[in-house]
Structure formats: structure tokens, C-alpha cells
Design brief:
- The protein is α+β, with helices and mostly antiparallel strands and 423 residues long.
- The protein has 15 helices and 7 strands.
- The chain has helices at residues 8-17, 29-35, 48-56, 76-84, 108-116, 137-151, 153-161, 170-173, 179-190, 210-223, 232-243, 247-250, 313-316, 344-348, 365-370, and strands at residues 254-256, 271-272, 290-300, 328-338, 391-398, 408-411, 417-422.
- The strands form 2 sheets. Strands 1, 2, 6 and 7 form a 4-stranded mixed β-sheet that branches. A 3-stranded antiparallel β-sheet has the order 3-4-5, with no helix packed on it.
- A hairpin with a 5-residue loop joins strand 6 (408-411) and strand 7 (417-422).
Amino acid sequence: MRKMMISGVTALALLTGGIVGFGSVGSSVEAAQATTKFKDVPATHWASSAINLAVEQGYFKGYADGTFKPSSPVTKAEMASILGRLSEQPNASTQEQNNFTDIPEWAKSGVSIAIAKGFINPSNYKGKLDAQGALQRGEMATWLTQGLTVVDPEYKQALSDVTNTVVPAKEYFTGKLASTQKNAVAVALGTGLMSVANDKTFGVDRTTTRAEVAVLIARYAAVSKTKPADFQGLNELRAVGLTGTNLNIIAPKYQKAGPEKFSESYDYSKVTGDFGKVRNQELVTVTNYADLKVKNWIIVNPYVKGTERSIYYPVFVDEKDRLLRGAYYSFTEFDISIKNSMNQLQAGSLIHSPTINALTSPSTKAFSEYGPKHINDLLGPKGVFIVKNPVYWGHGLLHFDKSLNPGVRLTLKDGTNYTVVPN
């Protein structure tokens, strides 16, 4: 075990409850449970196994009174020291210097190693880490996902791909997720490295607790050994970021319509199966009440469970919900520019499609808890829109039954024709 030179109050804090040792995640949880017991970590505690393993491996130490204090916050200096001890984490190809001026003596080596391993980027700070301050979850997501980019460059690409994605966390839908943290939060959620709380928030400003860190150590070890492409949730987030839809992942049977679906005189070169080419572009509408764009289009298969479920299932669908005739849910984020005035029924007439449907928003409990914009929030008396530029999520169905004409077709004003059908 590596020794650190510490002194005074810092030494006391570390010896009674701080972070010690250099062990790596890998020993059995059973062994950890057999050797460590804490009065405030019963077997029923949600993180008991991870806590015991982290202590057994030397990342944490209990307090003198027999407690672990699982809800106590972890400082940035402490977390940096832990990350520096991840023995299987390679060093970054480009090394940055530890130029922080506020690192306590006992943590300087740990912070420098964490920087070398790519978890912390000093250029994102202004000379001070606020090392003694509690580490918040948004910054934790940034550190961990930066570390992943060193392990596998494809994670770096993933961080770029999710720039314009829909993040399944309440802060995203309520406009409270900072752009500087959005990508990291998306990748953390897409890999299962981190998750939302019961209130559906990621909690970017919440402090990271000792219990959470114990869990995150084990999760990071697992995620870092997994290819980004093996996470369906991350694949969805990347697809939505790049194209505006997860259709090809959740409903891959839907493909670009072949030329046989069009008349011989039609210019098939205008047909595309790439939703990215129609995203945020003005569409040809059936009626002339408004100009219409589609920002995002999310598909959810309600019949699968576990890891096969869409990462967006908890946002839009209640657990009990099922559909008839094998349909999937379709959720569309509309950007509408009303020309004079328009009511709800007229919004529904803009596109005659059961799939891309602007008539209603989801009425699920899940949807209300995550806080996306609902059409009812934008309507006044007699169902008339009270804003000229409503942006909201609509609710439709993606059919597979060919007797229901399940194809989806959107046409841009420049003639581009997005048409997909189930094959």
C-alpha cells in the first residue's frame, strides 16, 4: 500500500474516514461483505455490496465509531485520489500539468495521477480545482466520461455524437441542463454508468456521496471494459444526436421505401431514408395554418423489457401501457410557426399521419414527471394556441400491420421526400 505524507486535520480526517490504499476493483463482493461491517450500512442498504467491496479494496475506510457515513459528500480532492488509483486506467496520450494552486499536500500526487489518466482536464479550470469542495454529480459525469475517452477513442466520438441528442433526464426537458455538461450526462446515462433519481432528475448540482462513489468505482470498471456500441441506450442517444431519431435502432425493419412505392414518373433521387435530412427543416403541410418542423422523433417498443428497452421508455411510457396490433409508440417534438391563429384540431391536420401526429401529447404519468412540454401547456380557451411558436411533444403510433398503410412520409419544401416503410 502506498503511503501518503499528510499532516494535521487532514491526516485525522483520512485516518478516521478518508480514502486510503491503492487496491483495484476485482475481488469478490462476498469477500468484502465477510470482512467489513458498518453500523449505518445494513445488508438492505442499496449500496452495501459496493461499499464493502470498495473498503476491502482500500478505496475507503470506515470511521472510528464503526460507521461508514454513506451519505456524506466526497470532495474533489478525495475523488481525484480514488480515480488516480484505478490501476487498469491507461495514461492519456497528451499529458497536462497539475497547475492547480489549491490542492492540499496529501492530495497533490493523487490529483496529478488523475490528470495523467485523463479524468481531469486542468484547461477547463482557472487554476483552482476547489479541491476541498464537494464534488457534484455533473462534474463527476464529466470526469468519468473523460476517463472513458482514454480507454477507448470511440467514447470520445460518442461524446461528440450526443451534442444534439435528447437526454432522458428532467433537467434536459426543463432547460436546466447546461450545455457544458450535457454530453457527459448523456454518455453517463447511455452506458448505465450513472442514472436519474426517483424525481427523474440527474442531479447535476447534487453532491456525490461516499455510497455513490463506491458504486461508481465498480460501474466504471465494468463500462471501461465494454465497447460503446454494445450499449443500446448509448447507441440511441448517438443516433438521436446525429439524425434526430432512434428509429433504426428500435424499429430497424423500417427502411427507405423502394422505387416500387412510387409512380414511374416520380424522381426517386429525391427520396431519402435519412431522417437527419428532414430534421429541423420546413415540411410541406396538408393545411396552411402554420409552418412545421420536426426537431426529434423517438420510437419506443412497449413489448420488450430489460436492456432491450429504449432508454426513452421511462420518459414517455408508463409500465402498464401496451398497444394493440403490434404498434410501437411514436413521440415527435414539433416546432411550429403559426401564421395567424390555430387550434389543437388544426394542429392535428397539418400532417395526416398516425405516426407524426401533432394533435395530442402523451398523457402518461412518466411524461408529466420528466417535464417535457405538453400541448395543453400552450392552449388557451377553446383549444386555441396562446403562443405563435409552440414547441411540444406529440404522441402517435408506429404501425407494422400493412393493412393500416404503415409507411411514414414527410416532404420538404425543396422536394426532398423522407419515406420509410416496414420491410
